[in-house]
Amino acid sequence: MQIPYTVEPRPDTGLYNAKLGVWLFLASEVMLFGALFSALILLRTGATSWPHGYEVLNVPLATINTMVLITSSVSMVMSWAALRLGDFGKYRKWMGLTFLLGLIFMVIKTIEYAAKFEHHLYPSHDNFMATYFTLTGLHGLHVLGGMIVIAYLLGPGSKMWMTEPERYTNRVEVIGLYWHFVDLVWIFLFPTLYLL
Amino acid sequence: MSASEEQAVGAQDHAAEHHELPFWQRYIFSQDHKVIGLQYAFTALCFLLFGFCLMLIMRWQLAFPGRPVPIIGGLLGSANAPGGIMLPEFYNQLGAMHGTIMVFLAVVPLLVGAYGNYLVPLQIGAPDMAFPKLNMASYWCYLPGGLIMLASFFVPGGAANSGWTSYPPLSNIATSGQTWWLVGMIFLITSSLLGSVNFIVTIFQLRAEGLDFMRLPMFVWSQLVTSFLLLLAFPPLEAAGILQLMDRVAGTSFFMPSGLVVSGEVLEVAGGGNPLLWQHLFWFLAHPEVYVLILPAMGIVAEIIANNTRKPLWGYRPMVYSAVFLGFMSFIVWAHHMFLTGMGTAISSFFQTTTMIISVPSVVILSALLISLWGGSIRFNTPMLFALAFLPMFGIGGLTGLPLGLAPSDIHLHDTYYVIGHFHYVVAPGTIFAIFAGIYYWFPKITGRQMSERLGKLHFWPSLIFMNGIFMPMFVQGLAGVSRRLYDGGAQYSHAQGVLHWNAFMSMSAFGLLVAQIPFIINLFVSIRWGVKVGSNPWDATTLEWVAAPSPPVAHGNFPELPVVTRGPYEYSPPESDESFLPQNAVA
């Protein structure tokens, strides 16, 4: 038994299975983060006092992190493009860079968290810190999840390139869509938490 | 190509080759949608029975408060029921867990995990689900979630005891069972996410050649809409669960207002949170969830009614459009559960308007099913009896919902037994009857044998009578103002005294309902082995699972060869032909 349309797109939908699957998954992710952003708005509008993000949080570090993530989205696209052109060596370089940028993001995030803990700013401090840690923590977990998949695709998963190059390219496209989404969440998180 | 797919490809060529898979791959970690569907079915039926037993213990307490629970009283533990006499705290645990188990571990997994998994690929002519590995993972997220829920009965303080709705701040300060509840829910939500993505992709991508959307059986449509509801409505509850977990574990105050006093002491939390936030996020899931509970049931009933009236469904297209419209609307009615929270009249007006609008498509579907009976030569077999009983039972459940959807009347009825009666009519004699109907109907497809008609009728008639015996008096008690969460059944309420005598009647009906399930359980197990052998299409049905696949369908692949669809799903008694039905894959 072969499941149809795992590699080639179905003519009437124009999609292969995994691509439709990841779009649906991202739709549910929109609802997850949408609910959390709504919670943030409700808590903030109802609060008697709410600090400005830039008074408490480290804006320069977060700006660097924003740049890091945006760059990683570019390198993700480059790696997929290289694969489409059949250049596996180039793909590995770009994908490796994406992983590295994800790692840099997580390291900077850790430095930020550590600085907060040093000043005894924990999630229980107030609802601003609570939303900050919950939202960035959940986003960080998403980055971490993406990095694990990238590591798999670069490591043991890369054998598929030899046997089923098209299916492997599809996998890279799918993780790419996810990675851009995680990037996009940060683009919303950064101004909401740090700048407003 | 993965190893499993290589095996699967082989299975199509040599149908017997799957027998060479080791036991644990065939039955435990199977990637065949049929085995996964049966795993879901078996597990969820066990949870259904367990959740029912929790309710029986509660019903004993409601009818005879302060009297030791018979037979199993000694097993409940001295912390819960010293001398077999139930403590109020234990009653609260049973109430919360009955709701949680029935909704999240029994009925939804039966409708979606079991029926959806088994039937959707068969009805659309697909060899399997689009993502067999995710399908397996979905079951293996569901089972641990369920086991965590069960295990929470044994932690200090017992299981979650803040109602199945887990409203904070009560749930925030509840015993550790609540944390287990949240963790269990996160497993179940993950399972549901994997399942719903899989269903939508399968229905969009793997339909057989010629099977366009307006040729899909009603059951597949109901699963498609249901999957979208699960996909988009569950994440907000996951968000709420994460926030409540943070409140309980990391000491945040998302749901904790400032200056909250518990047992005469001000709680040491940062405060500033909003308990209503939980209610909004919870009901944003839980209202679409109501339609998750009912849509697949309507789908099952539609299949059985069309088959047993021997004529096409009346109004297939309006039913499809209604199901889709119902899905959309279900996202903007949630706050009708919150009329008493002081949201403000403007918001209440909005939500009562949308609630009245959403009743229209439900009525359209029910009316179409009812009119479908007109002029049919009805076969009164067991599946049809359950399907027919579904119509008035769901009708009562739906119509009694109208006064709850209007804010002025809801103020009187909110949180009374009237509410319990209303949604149990929808789910118990409604959805669960549809589930029974489906079991009797598709059993021959799964096993190649038929269940006993005599035992089936012995199951049906007492169940119908006892169901009504349990739930009808609840409307009386609720209208009299008996609150739904009283552990003594209202004995302390002076205004409840006139309706208290119904408690014993309802409880006796509940015990009767348990007895009425014995013929079903016997029938189920005996028929697997000794049921009458039947062919691949004993009901003379039209849809692909009956006409294109053997009974049971081919392991890993379903069909000896993939079907090509030439016509709609319900071509019974066609005027242009002498046949009593035309299969969906009949040569034109």
Short description:
Chain A has 196 residues and is mainly α. Chain A has 7 helices and no strands.
Describe the structure.
The complex is a heterodimer of chains A (about 200) and B (about 600). With about 200 residues, chain A is mainly alpha-helical. Chain A is built from seven helices and no strands. The mean pLDDT of chain A is about 95. Chain A is elongated and about 60 Å long. In chain A, helix 3 packs antiparallel against helix 4 (about 90-120). Chain B has a single domain (about 20-255, about 270-545), classed as Cytochrome c oxidase-like, subunit I domain (Cytochrome C Oxidase, Chain A), CATH 1.20.210. Chain B has 18 helices and four strands. Chain B has helices at about 5-15, 25-30, 35-65, 90-125, 130-150, 175-205, 220-250, 275-310, 315-330, 345-370, 380-400, 400-405, 405-415, 415-445, 455-480, 500-515, 520-530, 545, and strands spanning about 260, 265, 450, 530-535. The relative contact order of chain B is 0.10. At the A-B interface, helix 1 and helix 5 of A face helix 1, helix 6, helix 7 and helix 8 of B.
Features:
heterodimer, A: mainly alpha, Four Helix Bundle (Hemerythrin (Met), subunit A), 7 helices, elongated, B: 588 residues, mainly alpha, Cytochrome C Oxidase, Chain A, two-stranded antiparallel ribbon, disordered N terminus
Give the name of the CATH architecture of chain B.
Answer: Up-down Bundle
Q: pLDDT below 50 for ≥5 consecutive residues: which ranges of chain B?
A: 1-18
Work out the helicity level of chain B: 55-70%
Multimeric organization? heterodimer
* Overall domain count of chain B: 1
Rg of chain B is 24 Å
CATH class division of chain A = Mainly Alpha
Number of strands of chain A: 0
Q: How much helix, percentage-wise, in residues of chain A?
A: over 70%
Number of helical segments of chain A? 7
Rg of chain A over CA atoms, rounded to whole Å, is 19 Å
Q: CATH homologous superfamily of chain A, by name? A: Cytochrome c oxidase, subunit III, four-helix bundle
Mass-distribution shape of chain B: globular
Distance N to C terminus of chain B: 37 Å
Strand content of chain A: under 5%
Strand order within the widest sheet of chain B? 1-2
Fourth-level CATH superfamily of chain B: Cytochrome c oxidase-like, subunit I domain
Largest interface chains and counts: A-B, 43 and 49 residues
